[in-house]
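Entry 12.
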Amino acid sequence: MTPELCMNIWFIVDIGSDLCYNWSARAYSLAGEEDEKLKLLNTLADTDYVTAPRFEIPKENVVVYDNAELQGKCPINGVSDMFDLHMEYFISILEETLPPIIRFSGDFLPDNKAEAQKFSDSPLFKMCILAENEFGEMRAITSVENQRWYEDEKARIELEAKMRSN
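Predicted 3D structure (tokens):
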């Protein structure tokens, strides 16, 4: 089977505010059946964000939080819609990080040509939330265990904020 470019994309969300403020992505060249590739992407989503480049959310995304307009942020419940609306943007940024493929066309080095790598029109991907607490601890929300951690951290942060305000 011919390999295809697939990707993991993480939207980094501050647990305390539930605002997405950055995103990361990593491309993979994967061969095999679609379900096998998705299973591998899901497994890699748990850890590969550590070495993935981080990017800012486009400044056009504006959210009102605590009576202030914040540029380059997105509420957690709007991440999926933002990705769907701007998928080409996110893919183009990731494509810029990929090394070119060298196409050999002759016996001499000058005859070789570098071609930019491109995703297909409908690439296979795994999108997930990467939750981060105030200590910089992060988990990709890809499992029940990580979802529980997120909910526990959210409850802890809210309780501490409530205790401070009393």
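Annotation: The two ends are 62 Å apart (CA to CA). The first strand starts at residue 4 and ends at 14.
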